[in-house]
Amino acid sequence: MSRPPRTAVPATVDDFKRAAAAAALDHVPDGTVVGVGTGSTADHFIDLLGARRDRIAGAVASSERTAQRLAAVGIAVLDLNAVDTLPVYVDGADEIDPQLAMIKGGGGALTREKIVAAVARRFVCIADAGKRVDVLGRFPLPVEVIPMARAHVARCLTALGARPVWREGVVTDNGNVILDAHALSITAPVALEGEIDAIAGVVTVGLFARRGADVALLGGPDGVVTLTRAGQADVVATKLS
Ligand code: 5RP
Question: Which of 51, 107, 165, 205 is most buried, judged by most C-beta within 10 A?
Answer without folding.
Answer: 205
